Amino acid sequence: MQKIKKIIDQLIASDRFSMDSLYEKVWPIFSSDTLLADSISSLNSHFSKTHYKKLACGILRHAFLIELVKLPKIETTKFRTRWYSQLQGDPRECSFSDCLKIAHDLIFTLTKSWLNNPKNLEALNLFLDYSILPYELPIDYIDRPIPTDTTIKIHRRGNITWIVNETVIRTLKLRQYLVNPQTSPDAEFFKKVINDKIKVKTYLTDRVLTGDNKTNREKRWEVHPRSVHFALRRVCIGIEYKLITQICAFQGFPESSRNILQQQGILPEEMEIYRCPITLDPLVFQDFKEELMNPTHGKSNFQVGHLNPLKLDDSNSITSGHTPENLAWISADGNRIQGNRSLEEVRTLLKRITHNYENEGLA
To answer: How many CA atoms lie within 13 A of 245 on its CB side?
Structure first.
C-alpha cells in the first residue's frame, strides 16, 4: 500500500491536480485489497459505472485529501494530502496509514449495513446525481473537537462516517425538483442561485486575512476546527435547506410548485411570506429572478448574511456561528443598516430611531 502513498504524493505535487488520474492510478490498487473484495463487489452491484466512479473518487478525496488555502497570499486553495507538511501539529493532520484505514472503514460501513437502509441509498444516489460541490458525498465528522482541546485530531478514525438525516434528504429533493426543467418552471434560475449564491455562502469560507486562521473559499468543514468559520457538512446542508426554503416563501413564488413540495413533505406545511429580518419588507421572487438572470455588475438587492457576527461564536451559540439559525436572506438596505451589528442590536437601534421620529412628529 506504500505504492498508493507514492502515487498520491506525486499527483498532489503537480501544478494541476487531476482526480481522474488519482482514480485511474490509485483505485485499482486500493480496491484490489482482498479484505475489500466483497465490499467492492457489492458497490458494483448497487451502482452504475458512472455512479461507481463518482463514489470511488469521493471516498479517495475525503479520506486522503484536503483543500488548503495557499500561503502566504491566501488567494486560492490547492489539494494537499492529510500528511502534508503545512498540517504538522494541526488537528486536521492524519498519517497515510490512518487515512487508509479511514477509507476502508467508509467502504465497510457503506456495504455492510448503511446501504441496507433505503433512505440512505436514495440519499446517496441523489448526491451522485445532483451534487453542487466536486466529489460531494454524505461523509461528515461525527464531532468537532472542543475548541480549547488542542490534543484531539478531527480527521481521525472513528470520527468520520456516512451521515444522512431528514434535512439532508429534503435538501437533496429540493435540488432535484427545482433544477429539473421537467418539474420546475424556474429551473435555470435555481441552477444559478444555488451555484452563484447559496453554494458560496453556505459551504465556502469568505476571504479572511486577519486572525489566527486565515481563509479563502475553503470548505467549511476543512478549515481549522477552532476557527469561527468552521461548520460540519450536515450543518451547512441545513443552511442550504433554510435558504432555499426562504426563497420558496418569497412573495410571488409559484404557488403550484410550493404546493407540490409541501404535499411531498419537502417544504413546511405552513409558510408565511418571507421578509427581510432587518427592514421587514417582503422579498419579491420575481425581482430576485430578474436581478439574478440579468445582473448589474456590483449591484445585488438580495444578499445572504449572518444575523449575528461570527466573532460572537466563542459562546458556541447556534445563533452566533455558521448555522441555519444564524443565516438568512437580507435586502441590500437591511445589510447596509445592519453593518457589523447583531440582529438584536440593530433592532434596538431601529426602535430608538422610530421612537425619536415619533416624538418629533416625523413618523
So the answer is: 23
